[in-house]
UniProtKB/TrEMBL annotation:
<dbReference type="InterPro" id="IPR029044">
    <property type="entry name" value="Nucleotide-diphossugar_trans"/>
</dbReference>
<dbReference type="InterPro" id="IPR042465">
    <property type="entry name" value="XXLT1"/>
</dbReference>
<dbReference type="GO" id="GO:0140560">
    <property type="term" value="F:xylosyl alpha-1,3-xylosyltransferase activity"/>
</dbReference>
<dbReference type="InterPro" id="IPR002495">
    <property type="entry name" value="Glyco_trans_8"/>
</dbReference>
<dbReference type="Pfam" id="PF01501">
    <property type="entry name" value="Glyco_transf_8"/>
</dbReference>
<protein>
    <recommendedName>
        <fullName>Xyloside xylosyltransferase 1</fullName>
    </recommendedName>
</protein>
<dbReference type="GO" id="GO:0005789">
    <property type="term" value="C:endoplasmic reticulum membrane"/>
</dbReference>
<dbReference type="GO" id="GO:0016266">
    <property type="term" value="P:protein O-linked glycosylation via N-acetyl-galactosamine"/>
</dbReference>
Length: 203
């Protein structure tokens, strides 16, 4: 994982940013579901309601995750987008595929253990094939892996509403691109969790 998803910043080369991917292999079999949270979060509602999202998983879903709320992956998929005119990869919501943010993760450990598809993607040759297919050179650890996997196999993921991971970071907002940024950053839902990424201040 580190070979493919930590190339630009040493910060994301730390094992901390990858352990969610294989946590199901480490925890005993009597651990069935886990919620993983970044430390820069502020809850405005009961965390049990987040746990209730597991009930909304379809039969194919193994992970619950929210979308990325900046045009990060619009940039990281630049070559793929140039080579595939009209692709939704990297486009903003509601119709695009903006990628994922792993600040809030719901892991169904039993399903992760049982999923032949998911486990097959952890092999070195699978990672090489997947990153090659999307001409992808990432640097954000596990969320790069989940984003790539979601582009190819969206059925594995339950997408959390933006209110459950309302990211506040605006580091990718550039002059002249405000309209593009706002399409990614906008969230019209009631906020349950504020995510103060990039040292952003909570409201």
């Amino acid at each position: 994982m580190q070979k493919y998803f930590s190339k630009l910043y040493d910060y994301f080369s730390h094992v901390l940013f990858y352990f969610s991917i294989g946590l199901y292999r480490v925890l005993p079999g009597n651990f069935h579901r886990v919620i993983l949270l970044d430390v820069d979060l502020k809850f405005t509602d009961d965390i049990s309601k987040l746990y209730d999202r597991f009930k909304l998983f379809t039969d194919d879903n193994i992970i619950g995750i929210g979308r990325e709320m900046q045009p990060v992956y619009r940039t990281l998929f630049t070559q793929y987008r140039n080579d595939h005119n009209g692709t939704r990869v990297g486009d903003p919501p509601p119709h695009g595929l903006p990628g994922f943010n792993s600040g809030v993760l719901l892991l169904d450990l039993d399903r992760m253990r049982d999923s032949k598809l998911y486990n097959s993607q952890l092999a070195e040759e699978s990672l090489a094939r997947l990153t090659g297919e999307f001409t992808f050179d990432g640097y954000l650890g596990d969320q790069d892996f989940y984003t790539l996997l979601g582009m190819k196999y969206p059925q594995l993921f339950h997408r959390l509403p933006c209110g459950w991971n309302r990211q506040l970071c605006r580091s990718k907002r550039r002059t002249g691109e405000e309209h593009i940024f706002d399409q990614y950053h906008r969230c019209d839902e009631e906020v349950k969790i504020y995510h103060g990424n990039c040292h952003a201040k909570f409201p």
